[in-house]
Input
Amino acid sequence: MATPATTVPANDSWLSRRPLIKQQLLLVVALAVIVGIFDVLNPGFLGTDNISSILQDSTETILLAFAETLVIITGGIDISVGATLGLSGIIGSIVLVALGQAGFGALPSLLVGTLAALAVGFVTGLCNALMITRARVTPFIATLAMLGIATGLTFVLTNGVDISGLAPQIATWGNHVFLGVLTLPIVVTAILGIGVGLFLHRARFGRWTFAIGSNARAARGAGIPVARHLTKIYVIAGLLSAVAGVLVFMRLGTGSPLEGANDELNAIAAVVIGGASLFGGTGTIIGTLLGALIIGTIVNGLIVAGIQPYWQTVIIGVIIAIAVMVQERGRARD
Amino acid sequence: MNLTAATNTDRKPAGETLLSLRNVTRSFGSVTALQDVTFDVRAGEVLGLVGDNGAGKSTIIKIISGMFPQTSGEVILEGKPRHWSAPQQALSAGIETVYQDVGLASTLSITANIFLGRELVKPGLLGRMGFLDNSAMTKVAREDTAKTGIRLPHLETTVGNLSGGQRQAITIARSMSWARKLLILDEPTNHLGVHEVEELLRLIRHVRDEGVAVILISHTLAHVMAITDRIIVMRLGQVVAEHSTRETTTSAVVNDIVGATEAEIARSVN
Output
């Protein structure tokens, strides 16, 4: 009680008192270095066309990583985000094609297809949440089950074949570039990122999210409805994955049953690179965004450099391992 | 936060019964952790709850604080029977609890921990959307901790960077600030040094003088003898004795704590 007030020593630098900002500056530097290397290897890498294409291709990873950030901050993990993206995209495009064949225009078809996809994300998220909060299944196993269910249903519905026959306007809307680098998926991702970031870092919703991941028993003791809050988190994760599913078929112009496979790897990598701890209680939306951009840049750079695409997951796996090890070293030093 | 604020209009006058337990029983599967526990807590008194490990002290306070409900029996607060299934219900009834070794959200700041679950939000639409008023929370936390005399590090410090004693101080400061009717302290002197214990005992008296009832669970009988008005002794899930602190001795209490006969122990095992 009578503990002397331990204020921060005066000789500490401004940065060392703000570890999150320091971390994010390091990520910006890392991103700049990676971009610089690829630009040297491939002149033209930094052109607006390629920047736009990196951003456009990264929206998928970024949205899933936002979803994963929320879950990881609570101390959980959701490995079903990629599978949910796949299933919601397929059901969305099936609805879109069916409505198109029934004579509806592209825009109303897209809106209803989007609602169908969101409904899928809502249901998968809710099922994850019920397994975790009611049946007390660990998040890893619950979402592993959902990964299997959603991936399986995607192939049952498609027989492994693409859903084609989407109105041609869909891909036009999904890929139209305006203001030099922006596209609809980029704008949607940015708006959702700002929304999630504000609620996570400025509102009670986020405060409770961090508290649960930091110490769930203390959160419950403080009167926070932990199960209800976790339910919201997993449902939002499902909805964000579904939005990513819609944006994917808008970019491609077809519904592919292969979309989303292994995407949880990229999402988790982005979150971990962004500085969140897999033990819960820490993480930022900005960090995750930078982590996702680093991954997106590496993937794009490897493609531009003509490296066999199967190397991508190998390299991302190595990045996850390095990022976690660097984090653990930082923690040990504290 | 209303330790010294004038929101105690609905508080019982000192000495009146605030909380009554009547034949409270709690079973976990086939194990009976509490059996027919009956006692009263009066407004403005410090009640000591003592007993050996496994006597049922923590089970009692978890029922009173809403962590889980009793299997049978009645918990009566201010004349009304209660059956709580979530801590939120006990908290809104004015009961604050410092749980043993539950701790704080270590990645959040001191202010965030003090206001955990009861965050202040901005006025208007932003507030309805849950946006936090951090400066107001810092201000109130600073004022209230200053009133209680608890000295804390800079309120924006992350709790994970603090010592065990400092964390305990925050936990206690938080509960004291919010307690309207009953403050439950489960082994609050753990992690505390000698001076810190003195400070804690001073604060408990301060809270009691405000008309709040305090239940103190402690293994350190010297603290219990120093601060309580009455002492309830528990053994093997039952209340076995009640002492008026002024009229008893430490050794009399110890005798009741360890006084289980061989026959009693044999019965509890079977």
Observations:
- Residues 17-106+164-269 of chain B form a domain with the Rossmann fold fold (CATH 3.40.50.300).
